[in-house]
């Protein structure tokens, strides 16, 4: 297993303008983005449809933490920022919540399984 050195510091927070753009892009995956924004405001979580904008790869938290050799959130975030070339979300409703790596969508008719 390849060991990655720890990142020298905590992740850099996104500026407010970038947070707005990011949330707008994510919410835009839904045909009704206002519903997504309302869910975030009311419950702190929203389900986002996969498909035309992005797909997701679910990675168990234990696997991510084993690769990072830590479950410390700032350490994991710094590692993922440096290692994954794209957005990663985490389901924080439980301590063992999985991570979701957002990837380019799979084009229709390419043999993708619908599990």
Fraction of helical residues: 25-40%
Gyration radius (Cα, Å) is 16 Å
Low-confidence stretches: 1-5
Please work out how many helical segments DSSP would assign. Answer: 4
In what range is the share of β-strand residues?
5-15%
Helix/strand order: HHEHHEE
Explain this structure to me?
With 115 residues, the protein is an alpha+beta fold. The chain contains four helices and three strands. The protein has helices at residues 16-27, 33-43, 61-68, 73-83; strands at residues 55-59, 88-90, 99-103. A three-stranded antiparallel β-sheet has the order 1-3-2. The chain is globular, with a radius of gyration of 16 Å.
What does the secondary structure layout of this molecule look like, with pairings?
Blueprint: H1 16-27, H2 33-43, E1 55-59, H3 61-68, H4 73-83, E2 88-90, E3 99-103
Helix pairs in contact: 1-2
Question: Characteristics of this structure?
Answer:
single chain; 115 residues; alpha+beta; three-stranded antiparallel beta sheet; 4 helices; 37% helix; disordered N terminus
In short:
This protein has 115 residues and is an alpha+beta fold.
